[in-house]
């Protein structure tokens, strides 16, 4: 089995190394990741300059671009064969609810999905305890299931794993995305040179976190798996907008 690994934290991240080490015994692994932290880069492609591909001392490849660039370059130009799966992660922190819109981790998996490859985005919800091995074992379980019963259609799964020992995981739940309150305001400050600068504020707290959501699952030590889709069409408003334009 051939697996392409990527992430948005950079090729040097501990989550990526943990996942690669865990999977190398059951699959042929190729790692293509950004050369630096590209968290929050979403699905952006680099179109204004060429991309460079380099190999690090640990065998990982890195690209001077976004997570989407990494997967696109690997699948369409670097690899001789289409991978059987694309896995992005293990991310440093959760990607739940509205986070998925901004997430470079989810974006890398999304690019694999758009290129016709079953893809997983994997995040460790709280990294204070650093249980990357728990998330890696969850991924191994899914990869083994995939090898035994291959999917007939491309699928995109967003996976969030509680930061606990593997034995403390209660179950795997199929969830929907929750929602957050709107983001906190930007933080205005001064640079060392006296210029006004702004930092993007923290994400808002959970607003829709009831049973069935990703927020609720991980709160009670369940792995959250949310199947994602790319079609953003708001079908229930099509008729409303059509009537509004006629009025």
> What is the percentage of strand-forming residues?
15-25%
Oligomer description? single chain
The unreliable regions are none
> Residue share in helices?
25-40%
Globally, the shape reads globular
Structural class: alpha/beta
Distance between the termini: 57 Å
Widest sheet: strand order? 3-4-2-1-5-6-7-13-8
Number of strands: 13
Write the layout of secondary structure elements.
Blueprint: E1 2-6, H1 14-23, E2 28-34, E3 53-55, E4 61-63, H2 67-78, E5 85-92, H3 99-102, H4 104-114, E6 119-124, H5 132-148, E7 156-161, E8 171-174, E9 179-180, E10 187-190, E11 196-199, E12 206-208, H6 214-219, E13 222-227, H7 238-246
Parallel strand pairs: 1-2, 1-5, 2-4, 5-6, 6-7, 8-13
Antiparallel strand pairs: 3-4, 7-13, 9-12, 10-11
Helix pairs in contact: 1-5, 2-4
Give a concise summary.
With 247 residues, the chain is of the alpha/beta class. It has seven helices and 13 strands.
Overview of this structure, please?
This protein is globular. It has a nine-stranded mixed beta sheet. A two-stranded antiparallel ribbon has the order 9-12. The protein has a two-stranded antiparallel ribbon with strand order 10-11. The longest helix is centred in the middle third of the chain and has 17 residues. Helix 1 runs parallel beside helix 5 and helix 2 packs parallel to helix 4. 28% of the residues lie in helices and 25% in strands. The protein starts with a strand and ends with a helix. It is of the alpha/beta class and 247 residues long.
